C-alpha cells in the first residue's frame, strides 16, 4: 500500500519531531532488560497472579476452551490483538528459555526469576493445549472477528474459537512445544499426513528434536536430526516461522563443545553468519542507512533481534572453540559478531537517525501511540464499564498517546529509510509482538553484564 497524504504529513512531522543531534547515546542495558521482560506481563491471558506488576492489565479470556470442553486459559496474546497464536508463542517461549539457559550468569537473580516466570506462563498453557492424546490446540480466538474490533482483552466478546490439529485434520503448528515422546511422535504423524498440503515444515521437527536431545540427552533425538538434516533446503533465516539458522547454530555448538571443529552444522552456521556480516562478499541482507537489518516482512524488528541473538550465541561458541568465520576473503571473529549484534541493540535503544528508542518506556523519547488494544483504551481500573466491539475505534483514531504504557514493548520499527511514524494506524511500524522481544532478552542480559 502507498502512503496516504495524511501519512506523508505525519512522516514529515515525525522526522522533524524526532530529529536530534548525532551524538551517540550510551544505552542502559540493565534498565532495558528489566523492561523487556516486564513487557510479557502485559501480554498475559487468563487469571493474572497476585505478583502481576503491570497492574493496568486484569483477568481476561477466562472461558478459552469452553467451546471444546478443555481449559485453554493462560498463555500470551500474540501482539496488539487478542488472539493466541501458538506457533509464534512456541518460538517466543523457546527463545526465552534459551536466553535463560545461555545467559543466566549475566542476569540479576531477580530478572532471571522474572524470565523463568515468563517461560512458565507459556509452558503451563502449552501443557493444557497438548493434554489430549493425538490432538494439539494451535490457536484460540477467531482472527477475523477479533481484528474487526478494537477492544480491551478484559472486554472481549468476539469468538474464542479453539482450533486444533488432529489425525484427521493435519497441520504443522506447535510441534516444538511439549518435550514428550507422545507429542513428538504425533507431530511426525501429522507431518506425514500434511506433506502434500504444506512446504518447509521439516525445520520445525529438527528444531524440536534438537531441543528434546538437549533436555533429555536421548540419542534418538540427535539421530533424528542427523538422519534428516540433509532433507532441509539450506535457508539463511531465523524467526518464528523459520528455524533453519537456529538449528545450524544449536547443532554446531553441540559438536564444538565436544571438540569437533569441522562438521556440516558448523559449515551451515558459518554461511548463515556470512549472509549477515556487512563486509562479507556473500552478504544476503539489507541494512538501512542508519545500520538496521531490514527484511521485507510486516514487523521488521523481529529480524534484527532474532538474527542478533544467534550471532551473539554463536560468537560465544566460537570463542570457546578458538575459531573464526571465514567469509570469502574476509574474517569475522567472535568479537566482530558481537559488535554487529550490539549495533542492532543500540539502534533499537536510541542510536539511530531518529534519535528515539523503539522500546516503550525506555529513554526520553519512544513510541507513544502503539498499535495495541489494551494499551490504547482506558484500563478497567479507571473505566470499569464494558467497551463493545466498535467502541474502541474512537481511541484507535485518537491523536493522543496511549493511556496505558506497555513498558518494554518493542514495536515493528522504522521504514527502510530509518524514518518512523508514531501512529496506531500503521501496524507494521507501531505494533509490538512477543517474538520481537523474546530474543532481545538474551541480548540485553549479555550486554548488561558480558560473560564469556
From TrEMBL:
Instruction: Please state the span of the N-terminal signal peptide per the UniProt entry.
Output: 1-22
Residue numbers annotated as active site: 371, 422, 431
**Gene Ontology terms: biological process:** cellulose catabolic process
Q: Where is the Glycoside hydrolase family domain?
A: 29-173, 201-444
Q: What class of enzyme is it?
A: hydrolase
Membrane-crossing residue ranges in chain numbering:
none
Tell me which Pfam families the record gives: Glyco_hydro_9
Q: Which keywords appear in this protein's UniProt record, sorted alphabetically?
A: Carbohydrate metabolism, Cellulose degradation, Glycosidase, Hydrolase, Polysaccharide degradation, Signal
Q: Which reaction does it catalyse?
A: Endohydrolysis of (1->4)-beta-D-glucosidic linkages in cellulose, lichenin and cereal beta-D-glucans
What Enzyme Commission number does this protein have? 3.2.1.4
Query: In the record, what terms sit under GO molecular function?
Result: cellulase activity
PROSITE patterns, sorted: GH9_2 (PS00592), GH9_3 (PS00698)
Family membership: Belongs to the glycosyl hydrolase 9 (cellulase E) family.
Q: Under what name is this protein listed?
A: Endoglucanase
- Native organism: Coptis chinensis
Q: What is the lineage of its organism?
A: Eukaryota, Viridiplantae, Streptophyta, Embryophyta, Tracheophyta
Amino acid at each position: 500500500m502507498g502512503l496516504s497524504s495524511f501519512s506523508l504529513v505525519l512522516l514529515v512531522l515525525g522526522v522533524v519531531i524526532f530529529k536530534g543531534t548525532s551524538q551517540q547515546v550510551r544505552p542502559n542495558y540493565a534498565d532495558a532488560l528489566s523492561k523487556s521482560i516486564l513487557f510479557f506481563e502485559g501480554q498475559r491471558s487468563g487469571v493474572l497472579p497476585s505478583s502481576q506488576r503491570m497492574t493496568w492489565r486484569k483477568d481476561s479470556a477466562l472461558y478459552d476452551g469452553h467451546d471444546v470442553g478443555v481449559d485453554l486459559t493462560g498463555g500470551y496474546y500474540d501482539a496488539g490483538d487478542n488472539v493466541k497464536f501458538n506457533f509464534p508463542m512456541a518460538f517466543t517461549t523457546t527463545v526465552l528459555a534459551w536466553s535463560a539457559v545461555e545467559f543466566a550468569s549475566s542476569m540479576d537473580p531477580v530478572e532471571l526469576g522474572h524470565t523463568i516466570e515468563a517461560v512458565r506462563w507459556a509452558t503451563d498453557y502449552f501443557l493444557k493445549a497438548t493434554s489430549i492424546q493425538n490432538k494439539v490446540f494451535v490457536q484460540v480466538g477467531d482472527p477475523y472477528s477479533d481484528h474487526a474490533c478494537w477492544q480491551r482483552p478484559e472486554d472481549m466478546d468476539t469468538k474464542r474459537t479453539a482450533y486444533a490439529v488432529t489425525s484427521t485434520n493435519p497441520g504443522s503448528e506447535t510441534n516444538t512445544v511439549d518435550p514428550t515422546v507422545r507429542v513428538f511422535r504425533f507431530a511426525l504423524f501429522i507431518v506425514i499426513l500434511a506433506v502434500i498440503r504444506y512446504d518447509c515444515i521439516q525445520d520445525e521437527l529438527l528444531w524440536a528434536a534438537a531441543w528434546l536431545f538437549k533436555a533429555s540427552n536421548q540419542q534418538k533425538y540427535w539421530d533424528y536430526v542427523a538422519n534428516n538434516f540433509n532433507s532441509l533446503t539450506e535457508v539463511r533465516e531465523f524467526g518464528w516461522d523459520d528455524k533453519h539458522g537456529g538449528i545450524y547454530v544449536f547443532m554446531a555448538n553441540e559438536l564444538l563443545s565436544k571438540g569437533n571443529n569441522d562438521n556440516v552444522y558448523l559449515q551451515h552456521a558459518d554461511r548463515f553468519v556470512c549472509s549477515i556480516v556487512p563486509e562479507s562478499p556473500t552478504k544476503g541482507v539489507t541494512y538501512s542507512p542508519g545500520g538496521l537489518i531490514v527484511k521485507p516482512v510486516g514487523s521488521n524488528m523481529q529480524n534484527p533481534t532474532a538474527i542478533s541473538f544467534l550471532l551473539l550465541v554463536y560468537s560465544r561458541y566460537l570463542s570457546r572453540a578458538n575459531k573464526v568465520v571465514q567469509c570469502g576473503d574476509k574474517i569475522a571473529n567472535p568479537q566482530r559478531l558481537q559488535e554487529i549484534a550490539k549495533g542492532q541493540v543500540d539502534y533499537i535503544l536510541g542510536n539511530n537517525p531518529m534519535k528515539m528508542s523503539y522500546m516503550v518506556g525506555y529513554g526520553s523519547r519512544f513510541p507513544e501511540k502503539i498499535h495495541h488494544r489494551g494499551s490504547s483504551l482506558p484500563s478497567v481500573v479507571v473505566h470499569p464499564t464494558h467497551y463493545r466491539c466498535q467502541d474502541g475505534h474512537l481511541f484507535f483514531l485518537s491523536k493522543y498517546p496511549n493511556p496505558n504504557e506497555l513498558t518494554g514493548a518493542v514495536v515493528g520499527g522504522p521504514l527502510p529509510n530509518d524514518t518512523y511514524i508514531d501512529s496506531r494506524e500503521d501496524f507494521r511500524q507501531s505494533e509490538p509482538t512477543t517474538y520481537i522481544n523474546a530474543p532481545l532478552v538474551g541480548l540485553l542480559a549479555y550486554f548488561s553484564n558480558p560473560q564469556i
